Amino acid sequence: MTDNAEHTLVLVFHPHLETESVANRRLAEAARGVDGVTVRDVYALYPDGRIDVAAEQAELLRADRIVWQFPMYWYSSPSLLKEWEDEVLAYGWAYGPDGDKLAGKRIMCAVTAGSTEDEYRHDGRFRATMDETLNPMRITTEYVGAQWLEPFAVYACTPDGLTEERLADAADRYAQILRG
């Protein structure tokens, strides 16, 4: 990667990425294959939940684009992502006086959901779109002065709903987005 090349940081928040995940593991593999992308398995880095704030902030400073990749858990993110936000996006660093370290960076979510896309509609089962479900992430992004990018979502990530063909297509689309 040259000094002028864009750097993307993909932070994967899946508590069982290597043992139970199919979709998030495949997306992470696709991301690892893209030049200029660094993938960090946050649960593997911090199995005890103790986050190295300085290390995480250093990674964020190097990135032009940040991706929070996670499975949808109870219409939210896994708990370590919330803990990560609470600790890493610190007052005086990410917001507040001199808290401008993420200003101008671009942030997006890459989300997998067990439910179908039709269930994430106003007339669907959840009566809310995926964008609306991710609204706290958008607000956080804007609060720290970063630009919110359109989320990437893979739906029906269940053994019955996720065929190898759909999974390969999702991984290809994800890699294309990360290249762009």
TrEMBL record:
Record has Oxidoreductase as a keyword: yes
Keywords: Oxidoreductase
UniProt keyword Zinc, yes or no: no
InterPro entries documented for this protein: Flavodoxin_fold (IPR003680), Flavoprotein-like_sf (IPR029039), KefG/KefF (IPR046980)
SUPFAM superfamilies: Flavoproteins
GO MF annotations, alphabetized: electron transfer activity; FMN binding; NAD(P)H dehydrogenase (quinone) activity
Record domain Flavodoxin-like fold: where: 7-177
Designated name of the protein: NAD(P)H oxidoreductase
Species this protein is from: Bifidobacterium simiarum
Taxon lineage: Bacteria, Bacillati, Actinomycetota, Actinomycetes, Bifidobacteriales
